[in-house]
Queue: 4 jobs
Job 1
Amino acid sequence: MILVTGATGYVGRRLVPHLMAGGWSVRCLVRPGRSTAFAPHPRLVLHRGDLEQPATLAGVDDGICAALHLAHVRYTGALLAALGPHVTRVVVVSSQRGNSRVPSPSVGQVREGERQARAAGERVVLLRSSMIYGPDDDRNLTRLAAFLRRCRWLPVYGDGQALQQPVHVDDVIAALLAALTRPAVAGRQYDLAGPQPMAYSELVEAVGRAVGVRPRLCHIPVNVALAAARWVPAAWGRRVGLVAEQILRLQEDKTASITAATADLDFVPMGLVEGLTQVHGSGSALPARPRAVGGPVDRAGRGARD
Ligand SMILES: NC(=O)c1ccc[n+]([C@@H]2O[C@H](COP(=O)([O-])OP(=O)(O)OC[C@H]3O[C@@H](n4cnc5c(N)ncnc54)[C@H](OP(=O)(O)O)[C@@H]3O)[C@@H](O)[C@H]2O)c1
């Protein structure tokens, strides 16, 4: 039996059916009061518990041989503490956020979670993913697409040249399934990302093309955006510190080498055009433009989540 944390999340609710189809029995750790969309199945059980409350995790490892940890990496220590030595493979999913140079509590949490994963040695396989996109509400590119459908004028902080490398959720799931069973990957870590980086402006253009819109990017100089973020009156209800952090993070390249994952996990991610076509259909008849202009946008429907 496999334990899955984060089973109600974007990746988790797609992963669990794959595990079931592969013949695994699955126990999902689900917070009390949260509902799952899973149909009842004799090989699917729920354990009601919260990774912030260790007492609720008692018995979560009964009968399991491996765990897939999709709840936030900051809970890695709590999860490992709840698992007996009979659980010999724990696949931990993290993000590229730990690479950020923008000071933030969330960066520290990711780094500490990853440190705990590495400290567990051969028992853990650590997968560090870039921004994940796919069907339904991925909270990343589908929100960008929805924004562009409503309004093709997109406010962009900076020059839009920061590099992005989004990865399709199906490719992340394939890597998770490979990391679950391959003996040779014990104790290793892998970066997961799309096949190649692209400037944020190119990403926006590709998403626009997929939904039949030619985006118009309205660049806001970073210094102007930061000053506005600092001086916007609190009465406007914006979390100013967070906004400033997002503006700075949007200037950072978010790229990763997938060479190791390709070699060890047969990770061959689909290209962005193929992935967007899968999500949005064949898109529009808009021709590709030779060169895009633009830049990153924020998370409120206009940019990357991770
Ligand atoms: N989505 C991305 O773009 C992206 C990019 C890079 C890395 N990642 C990482 O990949 C993993 C999966 O991403 P995702 O987008 O599927 O995440 P998600 O949709 O945000 O789901 C998070 C899951 O964790 C559960 N969870 C949160 N706090 C918990 C707690 N205290 N105890 C038990 N469960 C808890 C949530 O349960 P509830 O339903 O109760 O809230 C939910 O099932 C995450 O670790 C994420 O950081 C995601």
Job 2
Amino acid sequence: MSKSRWLKGNLHTHTTASDGDASPEYVAAWYREHGYDFLVLSDHNHVTILDEADSKPGEWPLLIPGEEVSSRIFDRTKPVHVGGIGLRTLVEPADEGDIRKTLQENVRRVVAEGALASINHPNHAWAITAEDIVATEGAWALEVFNGHPDINTFGGGGHPSPEEMWDFALSRGKRILGVATDDSHHYVDEFSPQLGNPGRGWIVVNVEKESEEALMEGMRQGDFYASTGVNIHDMKVARDEIVIEFDPYRAELFTTVFRGKHGRELATEEGQEVRFVPPAGELYVRATVYSSRGPMAWSQPLFSD
Ligand SMILES: [Zn+2]
Ligand SMILES: [Zn+2]
């Protein structure tokens, strides 16, 4: 990491091209006005592409095309949704009559178009299990946080959170990254915990320059962190040490938990700059950051090899 620029973006956004309540132009402008550098308009089973020539200078973030490939199986009771990031050609949703096979087929179709495939909101209607994630080949990322209220993004009631599912998969040798997203649908009326409003979860990608190509490569390589409000100033691996520096908001304080295989807590560090030397032989190490204000952030896993 530590290239010159950190760019903030949301990967999961709906508009009136599917079931969002505002036009693609309105949604793009909302994200620009709220400090986002890039955005994926990810409508259900629709590739929403705006003509940048219609934008006034600086009115929209950099738009990376995408789609939420959205299957609903078992009499529409179980959603199996896969984000296609950088997708320019419509991918039809699969129905293989089974959660795992449908998930795999949606991922396969996205990857076949050269796009990045994310496994979205596994806990939506409790459709996708940690074992399903382990069994799926080719997925780039898992939504470890999704801001929509129907998503059960922290698990509970006997169900693991997506973050716990992530450790389950990583511990079984799966190389999968973690993203935070809005899954925004509601822009124009009320902002409340009952609605899928924008501005709740995002990623920040470390790039040399602001371009779709650089962002896609940074995402592919895992040069980013996921956040619900924590700002990381810089994050790097210097010799064998992981160093994370934060940009605090006013009197905000941070607790950083470094986790290894099976989500085991390896160390808890406090402060505006934390350092950690991963133990030799640990399969992977990743960090979860807890802000005193409530938001969180997640680093990508760093593998021992
Ligand atoms: Zn979805
Ligand atoms: Zn969605």
Job 3
Amino acid sequence: MNILITGGTGFIGSVLCSRLLEDQHHLVVLSRHPETLQSPVQGIGSLSDLTDAMIFDAVINLAGEPIVEKRWSDGQKQRILRSRLDTTQALIAYFTRIEPKPKVFISGSAIGYYGTGRTNESIDETGVGDDSFSSQICRQWETIAIQAQPLGIRTCLLRTGIVLGNGGALGKMLGPFKLGAGGRMGDGTQWMSWIHINDLIGIILHCIEHDGIQGPVNGTSPHPVTNQQFTEALGKVLNRPTFFSMPGVVIKLLMGQMGEELLLTGKKILPKKIQEAGYTFVYENLEQALADVV
Ligand SMILES: NC(=O)c1ccc[n+]([C@@H]2O[C@H](COP(=O)([O-])OP(=O)(O)OC[C@H]3O[C@@H](n4cnc5c(N)ncnc54)[C@H](OP(=O)(O)O)[C@@H]3O)[C@@H](O)[C@H]2O)c1
């Protein structure tokens, strides 16, 4: 297949590209630094670099300013939002003008879609959002992406959870945990809906291959855990104590709204649609997933 990817240089995108290359697909990656991409991947700096002769079977949209790198100042919030909306809007404009159109469009989103309120209720793809910044970004991002559907392109909105892989959120946590200074955040009762990176890639491939899947798809494991359970599992896998805890008030002071929305709240998200579509998870158990990654 010919596949166009945005964000193909990132934490998730680079693993995805390696997997797709193993399967002999031809990849074009849209990047702000196309010169860094190496053959056989073709890098482009703009969608206008694509000729009419280039026909894509699938398009995967993962580009965006990192959400957890910096404090959410007004300027940073705009960068987070605009980087996603502008890339997605450019893809929709591209889809409108090309023929034949791709068969499938997988566009990134996040479980932040479901908002920040505290609840122990399980949430599937029918869940709704709220006024939090995370929920607003995802709603606006998805509202643009879904415009590909009436153009005749099957569109999946990948509501990704906390991805466990070599880097990402786990990469940031590992330092203190390895030093024996890891511990729960706040009261530890907030849910962490995690997924092993290989399963996220598996879900993307499953969405490409199965014509019946469209709309929102939760990219999370079937067994979300609380922050307290996650802390204990990571300590056990690393064989390190986890006595410390970071009080919520300190997290709010250090990280502001970002810490409040991403670290101190979290919902129990279930991957109902992809399981009903026949995807079998490789990593359902958190300790196994962590042991594989660390
Ligand atoms: N990792 C997770 O746990 C997680 C969880 C939920 C949702 N997601 C979503 O899944 C997508 C991929 O995640 P990731 O962790 O792989 O992302 P990432 O590594 O932070 O970034 C993906 C790519 O986005 C491009 N990018 C970065 N800043 C940009 C900007 N200001 N404007 C335009 N493009 C920019 C970069 O590509 P170039 O440098 O090549 O341009 C980068 O390689 C993201 O949209 C993220 O929000 C991730």
Job 4
Amino acid sequence: MIIIGAGFAGLAAGIYGRLNGYNTQIFEMHNQPGGLCTSWKRKGYTFDACVHWLVGSSPESPYNAIWRETGVASGSEFVYADEYCRCEGADGRTVIFYADIDRLESHLLALSPQDEDTIRKFIKGIRMCAAFDFPSDTEPLTVRLRKSVATFFTFMKYGKAFREWTKVTGEEFAGRFRDPLLREAFRELWIPEFSVVFLLFTFAWLHSRNAGYPIGGSMPMSQALEMRYRELGGILHYNKKVARILTSDGRATGIRLVDGTEIAASRVISAADGYSTLFNMLDGKYLDTKTREPYDKWPTFASLLFVSLGINRRFDEIPLTVSGITFPLREPVMIAGKMCGRLPVHIYNQDPSMAPEGKTAVTVMLESDYEYWKKLAEDRNIYVQKKDEIASQIIRLLEQRFPGIAEQTEVTDVATPLTFERYTGNWKGSFEGWLITPDNAYTMTKPMAQTVPGLKRFYMCGQWVEPGGGLPTSIMSGRRLIKQICREDGKRFLSKDKKQ
Ligand SMILES: Cc1cc2nc3c(=O)[nH]c(=O)nc-3n(C[C@H](O)[C@H](O)[C@H](O)COP(=O)(O)OP(=O)(O)OC[C@H]3O[C@@H](n4cnc5c(N)ncnc54)[C@H](O)[C@@H]3O)c2cc1C
């Protein structure tokens, strides 16, 4: 079995493949594991490009079983920040999105009594999501049966409200607030087209302390997955980019690498980017309307301008948050062709391991236009110069909120949508695949196919066949796929090592 890509989904497919007795080889174009779940080191600082929260960090969560099966959570220490994020207003007020629902409710009500109806509805929505305790196939049959019955009754109670929430987008929900700061804060909080129901689930998980931040960040998790895979006897090749998926008589028969080497296989799984898999590696030959639809119609998570800074100071006065703070700029400015009125900044004071003693890693993550960077990069010098300019611009803007920071900055690093594309192959540098919108919310109950029409023995897993993306989803995707393959082969699916 050949697996393309050693991101979370590819490594998960490898791990569950090995657990079920398949000979697996992963071909990864980069020289390290994890795909998007990554970080990089610069002069003693670690800049993390991924994990803010890991759903399933609570040992009681069914997701946690998956983390244990794959070895990701082994030995991880989790931090549970009291605040998801804060949005500072130009009028001196600050909206704090507390992880605790009761605290969040009273804070929002105190800030804007005129928005009581919308606030109460939002909190009720979070409580509704908290009430769902979906059965997971990691649990014993008796638990699954009990949970299925309970979920049925929860749906009876909340089904209508749940369906309604899936149709509400971030933009639409933010527009319901009368208070301009709350409107702005909710706009900052969630992606405009993304269904708000996921925001509700996120808060439900934060409240129940089931979405912690793992100390050490992304890379140790990716390395743990690689280790588990290798311990199970899996083979992993780095610096091997796959150019083609070979086919014959309607079956996948192997792969061809960019260096021309061909490797035969009885099954091929792509856990790499969906667009390049279907349109390049398979030449666009195995598409029907349904397979093509997402690529024609569905919006993707944006591509990012990701500025990392190593700051020679501590930020003890800034509370720990899951995803940072945003502050208003004195006046709107153009950053890489986009007008910005405020700046989001994530101070990594929740994880001292990210910086040398007494210093702090800081990141600024902005949506950025892929085409803008693609055009700039036609001239490498201009591209590099623009990245330098952006680093200086961001530092100048941070001075407005953190006076003196320019002097304290000792490391800068700028990643653009092209960086994300180069290192992970993701389409237009998207950082999480498909957004879930009212148009494709049905995939929450009816998952996308992991096969393509007209091609046997070929499969896909990962964020491009799991709208909403994310680390747990990618692992589940690899697991779901191997389960399906076991079913095809008439085998009982195993999720644990026989020795365990
Ligand atoms: C800034 C940021 C913040 C995030 N925050 C969170 C968070 O807090 N919580 C969370 O759960 N998720 C988060 N995510 C999302 C999460 O990282 C992704 O959804 C998940 O890692 C996707 O995993 P994947 O295996 O499906 O895809 P990828 O990680 O993209 O893996 C695909 C792999 O395939 C390889 N590949 C591609 N093409 C080829 C080829 N031709 N040949 C060989 N190899 C190839 C790539 O190099 C890569 O290793 C975040 C992502 C980013 C970027």
